[in-house]
Design a protein that fits this description.
It is a single chain. The protein is mainly β. Helices cover 0% and strands 63% of the residues. The chain has no helices and eleven strands.
């Protein structure tokens, strides 16, 4: 079993900053990719940012230059530093992880989702 727990969401004024954290815990695994998605009311879920085990990052064009994704020294943790927040950033942000499980002759990958944390940016 693997659980993703997010924290750091909240209410902030436009131009402010928030830092989201996500920690994966549970059975033994290695991380392939961890990232953040968001979904605003009436809109499709979109990838905000992701980072691979090798440190390669990907950003949505709408957040590039404002958000920074990083991994902690403990590689089961990922952060999303959000600066210069805009009202259109308001959404539920969910942590996502693609993990590899190895046991004996078995190797498989599994995708996991956190419960989500609300980010609200007021104007």
């Amino acid at each position: 079993q693997v659980q993703l727990v997010e924290s750091g969401g909240g209410l902030v004024q436009a131009g402010g900053s928030l830092r989201l954290s996500c920690t994966a815990s549970g059975s033994a695994f290695s991380v392939n990719v961890m990232g953040w998605y968001r979904q605003a009311p009436g809109k499709q879920r979109e990838l905000v940012a992701s980072i691979t085990s090798g440190g390669e990052t990907t950003y949505s064009e709408s957040v590039k230059g404002r958000f920074t994704i990083s991994r902690g020294n403990a590689k089961n943790t990922v952060y999303l530093q959000m600066n210069s927040l805009k009202p259109e950033d308001t959404a539920v942000y969910c942590c996502n992880a693609d993990l590899a499980h190895v046991g004996g002759a078995v190797y498989y990958t599994q995708n996991y989702w956190g419960q989500g944390t609300q980010v609200t940016v007021s104007s």
